[in-house]
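Please think about what follows:
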Amino acid sequence: MKNKKILEILKKNKINSFFLCIPLLTACNNDSKKIIGLLGNATSEGLEKFLKLSPKINNTDYPINNSNPETKRGDGNEGLTVEVNVNESTSPDISGYPLLFIKFNDVGKIDFSNISDVELLSIQNSDAPLDILNLRNDLVKILVSETQNGDWNIAYKPDSSAKLDLSWTNNTGTNVEITSFTINEVEDFLLKIMGNENIIIPKFNLDVNDTKIIQIENHNDGNIVICADENLTGTTPLNKIFLKTLDEGDIILGTPGTSGLTDVPNVKSIELIASKNGDISLGNLGTNIGFNKISSFLLSSEGGVINVGAIKAKQIDNFSASGVEFSSISIGNIDIDEVISNFILGGDAQIEIGKFSGNGVVNLNALNMTKNGINLDFTDLKGSVDIITTNQVDVITLSTSNNMDIIDLGGTNVNLIDNTADTHVSIESDKIINFDASLDKMILGSVVATESNFLSETNATNFADALTKSNLAMAAGQSYYFSYNVANASEGFSLLFHDKDDDGSSDIVLTLAGINTDIITHENLGTL
């Protein structure tokens, strides 16, 4: 049974009150059976909490002062503190110690080839970089606490395809920063941040052949900052990225516009889940080699800020972004080569997206965005778009690519607009920019537009004048009224009104910027 020896140590030493010194627990439990239950799972938080501060067990010191340290044998009932005091690569012969504590006091290496029986590693306060190699692939859990520094290297045995579960606590009262972090022979990397102060990793090097999964969870108030100024390396094999905040601490994995993951051809899934006050930043994605086909890209916030850099992809099957009130989600420019099949925006979050570009097709539905409208810029997109906008004020800028675009705009209530407005900027309604009347279609209601229920006129001097003329047309039986070249505006714009409830008066309106001639007909209008 995993952790059996660790449990025996706890029983032998009658450890039943070590939780007193752990701030993450709200109460002490003196029932040893409950403690054993907490520690029964190899990945439980009980072990992590137990070893965050000095462990209250029998512990033997094992200083390494030369390249050939003496053999060390334990009876399975003790922990062993290994102190590296020599600038050498050492391969100590150690067995019988299920708990191993490591401190690097000099720039040395520990080769685990001759170390057995270890079930849990705890990295303690160190004055020199961590460098360990040839770990067994069943040695999954590593705990880190106190001050660390230098270039870190954790390597498993060749062809291990290991899972590394790293729980890192910083309660030192100040930031902890290492110079770089390299992992080798690790397929699945899980990093859990548990402390109150920040942890900073300027350089992060994944295994260029093996690392397929990155999972980062922040459980406390300290931030984890990885590659704020430099790109991650070794990202080509990745197929999953999962980032989640559970408290007030942030996760930064690259900085949008500055750094990120340049090569992501094999990524199939990205999931970012922000807590109420814990923000998430994910840097640029695929600036060199983009996604080939990503199945799921999910952004969800309970109040925190999610910021994603520029995205380059051949195909995205499902892309969703949503959040509760006070959430903010920002997505950089999106370069799509083939298609975004299902792009869903929803919730009360403020959502901003950069420019779309590439040859692809974008199918986007923002109908369930309930608090703010959306501004979408397809100027540089050579493919077509199929869009359902919000019920708020939206601005859609289309490309001039000679492809058919379909835009379903909810329209803006005519009573919400300043009647004296006489420019498309001052008219705060849904807007379409670069509408191509020879190709594009817009959906404004469920009534089928025909020659008999559609009327176009000009010479309106401002919004109020156009609305008056529209109401006269609606009273006469029209359902759609197109007022072109409103106010003879120099930038050119038109207004399209619709009698949504068929009561003989105008209900909603949208602005067509750049259109000042009578080129819109009933054939440009579709229905759901």
